[in-house]
Hints:
Number of strands: 0
CATH architecture of the largest domain: Orthogonal Bundle
Oligomer: single chain
Amino acid sequence: xxGKRKGMQPNQDSNYEGDPxxxxxxxxxAEDALGRLVSRASEGDExxxxxxVDAYARRVYGLMRSKGCDRARAEEITQSVFVSxxxxxxxxxxxxxxxxxxxxxxxxxxxxxxDARARxxxxxxxxxxxxxxxxxxxxxxxEPVPSGPLHEALAELSPPDREVIxxxxxxxxxxxxxxxxxGQPLGTVLARHHRALRKLRSALEALxxxxxxxxxx
Length: 217
């Protein structure tokens, strides 16, 4: 199973929306299908593992990007997350039946925190680390820089408002998954998202409104 981890890359250009397995199996069967895939992957089924990676790599990658990671760092952490998931499944230690999505995303957030702490403990760079960072910068130099009214409007939101927008629309998580991830009731998440969208819409309208002419001109 671990052999399928090497070379795994999220598909950043996909137009995926909604639950990934729901797109393949149908919404009503997605949960049962996921349970079967996890069970098969735990038994060493390479095809089942590949389907899990294909279904969830982009979601984990999107979560990392929504947390401010550049492309190289997001890919690195995503790889690390799937290494950890594969290890747990292979060793028969998975105990989160029915909560695979939120379990995987918790691993991703923990890995991000670990990575952030490790970076803080390394105030200086070795020559090899500097070369690696330079190579990573070159890999991402062609990546479009977020710009335009939408990006500016998002920057106007508070961190909590921006978080729920990014989890929903960039990491492409369902409201139930956001609820599990944040440890908040589903109704609270829905209300937060509604308020954040209203604020985002107001910010966009303010940015796109024609400038008011000063009196006397």
